[in-house]
């Protein structure tokens, strides 16, 4: 679906953060703005996050109970393990969701903004990793990809079609 992930009312939203976890622009900036200053305070206690890994905080002023912060790969042409790292972002976020009994989770298009990952390729990684994970895990029950514009949404629709 298209929209603003900060308006998601399910259990958790995923933030496309950087390794400091201390906020930034894009969806990171939007989530920190909507969650309020307590989110930054909570992130300060986490000691950062490595690429491909994920950490969880409360959602504070957000409608979602949790924020799962993950750090996507910066696109350097595709020969620097970008797809492996991106898949690990989805995998580690979903594993955290399972551990915290998150029933519904929304992802932005991780790495497809500032980090420059081509959306067509990134959407295939997102869809494939998620379908594989849900094939062997009952929780989360609902995974939503919230696309900020039509071009991203079209890429996800195409990736989903190619998987079915
Ligand atoms: N809701 C949903 N999606 C959004 C929103 C929003 N409110 N705002 C931006 N997006 C989309 C972008 O259009 C893009 O498709 O999120 C996707 C990820 O883009 P970025 O936010 O730029 O994230 P990323 O490419 O992973 O780069 C991360 O940017 O903001 C900094 O601190 C962040 O250093 C980190 C880097």
What can you see in these coordinates?
By secondary structure, the protein is of the alpha/beta class. The protein has a single domain (5-163), classed as Leucine Aminopeptidase, subunit E, domain 1 (3-Layer(aba) Sandwich). Helices cover 40% and strands 15% of the residues. It is built from five helices and five strands, in the order E-H-H-E-E-H-E-H-E-H. A five-stranded mixed β-sheet has the order 2-3-1-4-5, with helices on both faces. It is globular. 43% of the residues are buried. The structure holds adenosine-5-diphosphoribose. Adenosine-5-diphosphoribose (APR) binds next to strand 1 and helix 1.
């Amino acid at each position: 679906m298209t929209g603003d992930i900060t308006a998601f009312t399910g259990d958790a939203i995923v933030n496309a953060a950087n390794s400091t976890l201390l906020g930034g622009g894009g969806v990171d900036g939007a989530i920190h703005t909507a969650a309020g200053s307590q989110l930054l305070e909570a992130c300060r206690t986490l000691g950062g996050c490595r690429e491909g890994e994920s950490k969880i905080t409360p959602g504070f002023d957000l409608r979602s109970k949790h924020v799962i912060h993950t750090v996507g790969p910066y696109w350097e042409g595709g020969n620097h393990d970008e797809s492996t790292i991106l898949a690990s972002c989805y995998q580690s976020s979903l594993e955290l969701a399972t551990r915290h009994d998150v029933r519904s989770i929304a992802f932005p298009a991780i790495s497809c903004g500032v980090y420059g990952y081509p959306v067509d390729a990134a959407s295939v990684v997102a869809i494939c990793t998620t379908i594989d994970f849900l094939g062997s895990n009952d929780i989360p029950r609902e995974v939503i990809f919230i696309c900020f514009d039509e071009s991203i949404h079209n890429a996800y629709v195409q990736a989903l079609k190619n998987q079915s």
